[in-house]
Design goal:
The protein is 63% helix and 8% strand. The protein contains 15 helices and 5 strands. The chain has a 5-stranded parallel β-sheet, with helices on both faces. The longest helix is centred in the middle third of the chain and has 22 residues.
């Protein structure tokens, strides 16, 4: 855990500069960094017996602009390391009552979308669309909790992109599904904590074959971002053992719309043909019922 070692070194280097109260904070973080990462400044101060302002000054002493910046670094460190059982234990302290749990979960989803809007690299977004449109084949890779995101993206891309393949964990191994990938292809890898080792191995394999890699992930320091040629960030900060994938879904919607806008003329005719087929075979029955009511 290189990042953890770096944090410990930072605390050791600055330890003599710390006040008595700040030293208590440092010692707590060293021993309980996984819990501290999800505590507010007020909660951390209460836990170690110091004021909230002492916690803020502690972060400043370490070189951070504020406590929030230190907390973000701690969260990046732990979110890939926590087991589901550990996440559940953190949930108990965050969602302290059933009455406010729904509000906190929804608010966290809103926060993730806001941070995605603020932090998204729009130049990278446009470059990703350009590469998707140029690709001979677009592979969409997402395993475990990211599998439904990959399936959703692949479902809509099949309407607007000529050759799309969704890479899943079944029926064959991911490497077999990427076997025919070439330097003319794009692989969109969706990876969120806890980052699937198989996803990362598959992205490495695709990169070795010369594919252009587009990563959709939660942070520029995530393992997927280290492999990707183009990285699109959408937050997934958790409030429990369930990760928030609302912002990634919103980003994927934007990507679908962005690609569709570039192929607007072609897909209009395509969807006109599809509508005729859907109508003929009563795919959307409610539409027909509405039509009958209007007659």
């Amino acid at each position: 855990m290189e990042n953890y070692v770096n944090l410990i070194k930072l605390l050791q280097t600055n330890f003599n500069k710390l006040s008595k109260g700040q030293k208590l904070i440092a010692e707590y973080i060293i021993e309980n960094y996984d819990k501290a990462a999800f505590m507010t400044a007020s909660k951390l101060g209460e836990t170690v017996g110091v004021s909230e302002s002492t916690v803020v000054r502690f972060a400043n002493t370490l070189g951070y602009k504020g406590y929030r910046e230190l907390q973000n670094e701690l969260q990046e460190l732990v979110k890939n390391k926590l087991t589901t059982v550990q996440r559940i234990s953190l949930t108990d302290s965050y969602l302290d009552t059933k009455d406010n749990s729904m509000k906190k979960v929804l608010k966290k989803d809103m926060d993730n979308i806001r941070s995605t809007i603020d932090e998204l690299d729009y130049e990278n977004f446009d470059i990703a669309i350009e590469n998707i449109l140029k690709a001979k084949t677009v592979y969409v890779l997402g395993l475990r909790s990211s599998a439904f995101l990959a399936g959703y993206l692949g479902f809509y891309f099949n309407f607007i992109v000529d050759n799309v393949k969704v890479v899943t964990s079944a029926p064959s191994d991911v490497f077999e599904q990427l076997l025919k990938a070439t330097e003319n292809d794009v692989v969109i890898g969706i990876s969120y904590p806890r980052y699937s080792k198989r996803t990362l191995e598959a992205l490495d394999y695709a990169k070795e074959k010369g594919c252009k890699i587009i990563g959709i992930t939660d942070s520029l320091v995530s393992p997927a971002a280290q492999i990707a040629d183009i990285t699109l960030i959408a937050g997934s900060n958790m409030v429990s053992f369930v990760d928030s994938l609302v912002a990634p879904m919103s980003l994927i919607n934007a990507l679908i719309v962005g690609v569709a806008m570039e192929k607007e003329e072609g897909i209009t005719k395509y969807f006109e043909d599809l509508e005729a087929i859907w109508e003929k075979h009563n795919v959307y029955g409610i539409s027909n019922r509405n039509n009958n009511l209007n007659k």
